[in-house]
Design a protein that fits this description.
The chain is an alpha/beta fold and 315 residues long. Helix content is 43%, strand content 17%.
Length: 315
């Protein structure tokens, strides 16, 4: 059997989809996840249940700072680091966890990669690193004015990875992900919360008076990008992964109403601290590097999410 790929955060949204795709391709995967209760652990366990029994799959439950050695008993040739403390608003409430998980945790991964002689580390960065930079967000922007602590930790990850790649000679590719959504998604994200509220007949809290725009990335397109770079390390680099077509928040809600067949009641609210009014990915570098372009538009992506949500929750 070929050398495994190690995925941190394997019970998470993107980690689950990536593990499932790799296993379907016949590549062995070792996953590690601490099943953090930041959001519904039952959903994380359900994702793991979908992977259980797959040939080539091994799972280690534990924190990456104390259990990474268990996951690397058979050294992988690549690590995809997706474990992190997420949530911009949560970073205002529990900043210590972002320092511990996103900085100290990432240091643990870098050290493990160095010690094991890993060829390539692919890690999740975020569109939030751009802060208030001019649109569209391009990889050559300075990205040094984060609007929240989560963004600051992700930009710090990029700098740490660059230093380790330079010093120790392994590839380090950071993917600046733009608002990832799709089936099995995170309950703290707007699409998930809006779906639950619409079906429950509850009003939607729409921040920024509904004027915000987001560049949405369907999860299958994100997995395509990870697979496209995984076996092609090229020193230290960052790449935008987005659709390249911003969608207004109100347009997203209208698409969701159409997919659900249920109207929404909106509660327009001011912008929240730490939020960016709009995001827009310049995806030319990803296209030039991998030949990839986003395949799933927002209407189709929302339809797929709604079909999964209704099936999973029986509503």
């Amino acid at each position: 059997m070929s050398t495994p790929v190690l995925i941190t955060g394997a019970a998470g949204f993107i980690g689950f989809h990536l593990a499932r795709r790799l296993l379907a391709l016949g590549r062995p995967v070792v996953g590690i996840d601490n099943l953090d209760p930041y959001y519904d652990v039952a959903l994380k366990r359900a994702r793991l249940a979908e992977l259980a029994g797959s040939p080539g799959w091994r799972f280690v439950q534990g924190d990456i700072q104390s259990h990474l050695a268990d996951a690397m008993e058979s050294p992988p040739n690549a690590i995809v680091h997706l474990a992190a403390q997420a949530g911009i608003r949560h970073s205002l409430q529990a900043p210590e966890s972002f320092i511990q998980d996103n900085l100290q945790g990432f240091f643990s991964v870098l050290e493990a990669a160095r010690q094991a002689g890993i060829e390539h580390l692919v890690y999740a960065s975020s569109s939030s690193v751009y802060g208030a930079d001019p649109l569209p967000f391009s990889e050559d922007a300075r990205a040094d004015h984060p609007l929240n602590l989560y963004a600051a930790t992700k930009r710090s990850n990029e700098l740490m990875a660059h230093a380790y790649s330079h010093l120790h000679g392994f590839g380090a590719t950071g993917l600046r992900l733009f608002t990832v959504y799709g089936p099995w998604g995170r309950p703290d994200m707007a699409l998930f919360k809006f779906t639950r509220r619409i079906l429950a007949g509850e009003p939607l809290p729409v921040f920024g008076q509904g004027q915000m725009e987001r560049d949405f990335s369907y999860v299958d397109d994100v997995v395509d990008a990870i697979l496209a770079v995984l076996d092609a390390p090229q020193g230290a680099r960052v790449l935008n992964v987005g659709c390249g077509r911003p969608v207004g928040l109100l347009d997203m809600i209208r698409s969701l109403e159409s997919a659900l067949g249920v109207p929404a009641r909106l509660e327009l609210l001011p912008m929240q601290p730490g939020d960016a009014p709009r995001t827009h990915a310049d995806t030319r570098l990803l296209a030039e590097t991998t030949g990839l372009e986003a395949q799933v538009d927002i209407d189709e992506g929302i339809r797929r999410f709604v079909a999964w949500y209704r099936g999973y929750y029986g509503v």
